[in-house]
Amino acid sequence: MATPPALNWSVDNCTIERAMGILGEKWSLVVLREVFSGIRRFDDMRVRTHIPRQVLTNRLNNLVEHGILRREPYREPGSRVRHEYRLTDKGFDLYPVMIALSEWGNRYLADPEGPPIEYAHRDCGAELHLAVTCADGHLIEKRREIQPRPGPGTRPRRPPEGTTRPETANGSA
Amino acid sequence: MATPPALNWSVDNCTIERAMGILGEKWSLVVLREVFSGIRRFDDMRVRTHIPRQVLTNRLNNLVEHGILRREPYREPGSRVRHEYRLTDKGFDLYPVMIALSEWGNRYLADPEGPPIEYAHRDCGAELHLAVTCADGHLIEKRREIQPRPGPGTRPRRPPEGTTRPETANGSA
DNA sequence: CTTGATGAGTCTGTCAACGAGACTTAGCCT
DNA sequence: AGGCTAAGTCTCGTTGACAGACTCATCAAG
Q1: Cβ neighbours for A10, distance < 8 A, ≥ 6 positions apart
Q2: Nearest to B15 by CA among A30, A124, A143
């Protein structure tokens, strides 16, 4: 084997990495799962998830800071004003991420009786799944059809003087 | 507002949570991005990602242990036998997760010039994206059509004696 | 056969993040 | 006035991340 071409590009500005910087902290996605499921209050999340208080405050604040959740004041009759956490548009756009994770998790990690949460089409009740398509409208069914490649923000990586291995032609796994 | 119905179900066996237990550790998905991009060797990953050695060994081992990567011995002419890391089927099935993250990241987190990596349809070159569909074949375009609900593995949550709030009807965010 | 290069680690010590449990605070209710 | 409750802070011990030096096996050069 020889040098994969990817080695010549830098990935400092990788958006997957940035996304994981926000969502990859422990519990972040669990918090989002809760909000997607209609759980919006601090203590309700605590009760279901057992996330340590401190971590939960921290995650909620981070998610608010990144514009994924917003704090909404509400007042329950006979209580003082409180806040609940709701998804912003940016947060809702994480639906595919949630569905992708749950599809994979359901296939490989579920208990024999199945997963405790599923995502369904409200109108017809059928379960959801993700389809990979391309901008030209083709449906992608086999992974051989998928090709990672340098995008518009690609920058060269300066190799540290004399790191040379013979080139190869094909960069996918 | 009143008790969201989700509060009555347990989420101990949630598959999203389990998936994040594997993929949510710092760097896990970056390692996978590398492998998807054709980077398969320890030091090549180090060079691009600057992941600390110890963490990288640890992540690679975890991913192998969970059957997402496999170690493949190879021998470069004039070197001793080494190992490279390749995706298993289970690993390849994470493609939707990668694409979902990168779509979201590209929309909200990219530099002005764009992302450094994109996923394309090999046959036509067009960029990929994910479509949410339901098992009945409907294309879901609005989040209002998505409904999280208890799945087959749902278990009741034993509420700790006298945690009662009035019920509400609708559980989505 | 010795020396050196190289890929892939291990070892050590420091610092940040996580987890458990007790304590705090603001506003409402009796 | 006293108590309750949601949502935090505080404290402290444990785990995980990181940096940098060290190890180890193997092959190639001399």
Answers
A1: A154, A155, A156, A157, B48, B116
A2: A30
Instruction: Classify residue B64 by burial, with Cβ atoms within 10 Å: 0-12, 13-18, 19+.
Output: middle
Q: Which helix (DSSP H) or strand (DSSP E) does residue B19 occupy? A: helix B15-23
**Protein-to-nucleotide distance from the CA of B92 to the C1' of C15, whole angstroms:** 36
d(CA A40, CA B146) in angstroms, rounded, equals: 17
Chain B environment of A108 (Cβ under 8 Å): 90, 93
For B47, nearest residue in chain A (alpha carbons): A7
Residue B17's SS3 state is helix
CB contact under 8 A, B33 and A16: yes
The token duo for B127 is 């960029």
Q: How far is A76 from chain B (nearest CA, A)?
A: 6
The residue written with tokens 């209580």 in the block is A79
Residue-wise pLDDT for A94-148, tens only, equals 999 999 999 999 999 999 999 999 999 999 999 999 999 999 999 999 999 999 9
For B56-104, write each residue's pLDDT tens digit.
999 999 999 999 999 988 777 667 778 899 999 999 999 999 999 999 9
- In angstroms, the CA B107 to CA B17 distance is 25
Helix H or strand E encompassing B173: none
The CA distance from B96 to B35, in Å, is 15
Residue of A1, A7, A37, A88 for testing the chain B interface, max B β-carbons within 10 Å: A37
Whether the model clears a pTM of 0.70, i.e. scores above it, the answer is yes
Per CB-CB distance under 8 Å, the chain A contacts of B39 are: 4, 6-7
